[in-house]
Amino acid sequence: MLENFKHITFINKIYYNLNSTNILPQIIFSDLDGTLLPGQSEISNQDMNTLHKLGERNIIRVIATGRNFLSAQKALKSDFPIDYLIFSSGLGIYDWKNRKLLFSSGIKINESKNIAKNLINNKFNFMVLDSIPNNHKFSYYICKDTCTDFDSRLKIYSKYSRELTNIEQLDDCSQFLVIDSYEENRHKLIEKILPDFKLIRATSPIDHNSVWSEVFPKNISKATGCQYICNLLSINNENCVCIGNDYNDIDMLNWCSNSWIVENSPEFLKTKYNITDSVYNSGFTKLFSNYI
């Protein structure tokens, strides 16, 4: 596959950008935090300019983020140059230009109570996010000492949170979020006790270090969100390009036949996907430089 790309060297490392002889992609899916958005900084002028120019070439631009809709809106101004937004890792899909919610999913009340019961029995602290479009609001349950990142999220969203004291208080929800002192066996334990649900591992957008375990309906991921938009627009995924940087992008990266990660991704991902430059060096722009 690599013979279809041309080599570009940055800082004594080998990266690739899309070869100008390749067919122009019809649609681009990009993660946000760590891929386009570097930490607490703003998206670079170069990457913003690239998004505008891709639009001028009639390439569909999609952000696929783990952020809820409210959080995504805080990072992306209303005139941000994209066409669609996949938020909450595929739980919701939004037509950015026409300001219309196209799709939403969630967990039904009986399932939410069973999930909570299993997590409590295994001593997990967790948050239960309300149904879309209000999934910035949540209930939280504490059954042991919390970690710093759990406390930080409670503080940031204090006006949107309430304590869960009885699982009978639960209703339909969008997802569960477990923020634990991370150990690999704890993450695997959640997979074991909740086999009928999708478990996605993600790096915290708060301290950019802690690991979150997010519990979703079985059929939800960034990949299913990408497929939904492709079906909507009658686009074959062979005409797509995906770019990400973290574990919660894996489904999307595996779904796409032309997948990339930025250089600041975890080492584990670098063994599996093509690499462009880091988010701090506008890797998104480097990847699409032949088209702009």
Structure, described:
- The chain is an alpha/beta fold and 292 residues long.
- The protein has 2 domains: 2-105 and 221-291, Rossmann fold; 109-216, 2-Layer Sandwich (Hypothetical Protein, Haloacid Dehalogenase-like Hydrolase, Chain: A, domain 2).
- Helices cover 27% and strands 25% of the residues.
- It has 9 helices and 16 strands.
- The strands form 3 sheets. The protein has an 8-stranded mixed sheet.
- Strand 6 and strand 7 (100-104) form a beta hairpin.
- The longest helix has 13 residues, at 109-121.
- The model is unreliable at 1-15 (pLDDT under 50).
**Biggest sheet statistics:** 8 strands, mixed
Spans of at least 5 consecutive residues whose pLDDT stays below 50 are 1-15
CATH architecture assignment name of the largest domain: 3-Layer(aba) Sandwich
Q: Major sheet: order of its strands?
A: 7-6-5-4-3-14-15-16
Shape: globular
At the first level of CATH, the class of the largest domain is Alpha Beta
What's the number of helices?
Answer: 9
Order of helices and strands: EEEHEHEEEHEEHEEHEEHEHEHEH
Beta strand count: 16
Ends distance: 23 Å
